[in-house]
Amino acid sequence: FSFGSRRGITKFNPQQIKRNEIAPPVYVTDIKKMSPNGEVLSNGTFAKEIVLDYNDYYLSLDFVALNYNRSEKNKYAYRLEGFEENWTYTENIRTATYTNLKHGEYSFRVKAANNDGVWNEEGTTIKIIKRPAIWETWWFKLGALFLGILIILSAFRYYTRSIKERNRILQKYNDDLNLEIKRRKEVELKLQRREHKLVDSNKDLQRSNKDLEQFAYIASHDLQEPLRVVGSFIGLLKHRYKEHFDKEAFEYIDFAVDGVRRMSQQINSILTFSKVGKKEIVFEQTNLNEVVKTKIRDQSETIKEKNAVIKSGPLPEILCEKNQIEMVFNNLISNALKFNKSETPKVTIAQVENHSDDFWKFSVKDNGIGIEGEYQDRIFDIFRRLHNKRDYKGTGIGLALCKKIIHRHKGEIWVESEIGEGTTFFFTIAKNLKSETEDNTEDEKSTSNKEGKYAPDKIFTDS
């Protein structure tokens, strides 16, 4: 080919064009590392090794091929051995970038081709070492492994020891519990034996009480007739032979008559007390207002004599044994009048409201002489007297009779009193009373035998 120009003729023979067979050398020119501490730039022309710290998270390498004949036609290929398996080919990009490489050793290889595609297969190689963090080193992992094993063994040993200690404590607790169970069984066995003995004793006591009640009843009943005879003959002696006796003899006769009278009262009280426990009890609806009115009427002479005032509030109609409750009110009213030195004795009989859903509660209050605290629990004992017979007449059975009656009505009786301030008797009666029939065949037979044993004809056979 010939080309003309102002400078002359230019000839070109395509067959004379030669292919560039020179493989271009390749160099890494710049190395860039980045970490939280900042950015580091270095020249890589003569670098054979790059060391990265564990916190270097960015690495870039710039490279170039030394071919200046139409250098824009140069081609490149790079690979990071240990990270990539295949080559990355590029024409215009002369930078390789890697991020977050794992610790270890790598080889960065880069090769280039000239404008005619002749490759420098040897290229350039740089060794890259990424240092591990302390926790990524083998000795740290081995130490952690040993430490973990030690902790596990220690924990296992502690767990085993705690289990043994717990088993020891549980065994001790179990032994103590077995010992306590054994002791309780022994105590329970003793209690059962005592309970059996107590039941037997109660049975013996009940039989003894019945025997005693029966004896008291029969003895009191049988004593009335000879006592009546004694009283009658003393009266005949006083009237028929009064001209033969002096004043002193009549005084002795009066003493004897008074003794007979008091003995008769005592016998009647004992009979009444015995009948309360012996008699079958049948409850009936009773208007207590009528009961109190009747007892006030019976005490009318004493009330008039002492100028007493008796007040009775509204009382309910309850289920009770009428005759026995009459005895209770009669004794309490009588005592309130008897043990009273006031110019105007006052007695108040009332129901205590809102006491209980299961019991009726009543009170008998007076302004009498009062009772000392140390004697308030004793006054309900039979034959218990706090005063001599000259000052206050009585048998000492009244309050014991009241207590016995109230107990048969499933209630309680007690007293509150202060010396000189008066006395208040309280008593309760159960609301759910049911009539009782003492159907004890054996006791009846026993009673029958006892009646035969203590019959009057046998008591006085030898007399």
Structural commentary:
- With 463 residues, this protein is an alpha+beta fold.
- It is 43% helix and 25% strand.
- The protein is built from eight helices and 18 strands.
- It has helices spanning 138-240, 247-278, 288-298, 300-306, 322-338, 398-408, 441-453, 456-459, and strands at residues 2-5, 8-11, 26-35, 38-43, 49-52, 58-65, 75-81, 88-90, 95-99, 104-113, 119-130, 284-287, 309-312, 317-320, 346-351, 359-366, 413-418, 422-430.
- Helix 2 runs parallel beside helix 6 (398-408), helix 3 (288-298) packs across helix 5 (322-338) and helix 5 (322-338) packs antiparallel against helix 6 (398-408).
- The longest helix is centred in the middle third of the chain and has 103 residues, at 138-240.
The low-confidence runs, each spanning 5 or more residues with pLDDT under 50, are 437-463
The termini sit apart by 191 Å
Shape: rod-shaped
- Strand and helix order: EEEEEEEEEEEHHEHHEEHEEHEEHH
Question: Treating each run of at least 4 consecutive H or I residues as one helix, how many helices?
Answer: 8
Give the averaged pLDDT, no decimals.
80
Beta-strand residue percentage: 15-25%
Radius of gyration: 64 Å
Strand pairing plus helix content: what structural class? alpha+beta
Q: Describe the main β-sheet briefly.
A: 5 strands, mixed
Read across the widest sheet, the strand sequence of neighbours is 5-11-10-7-8
Q: Report the helical percentage.
A: 40-55%
Number of strands: 18
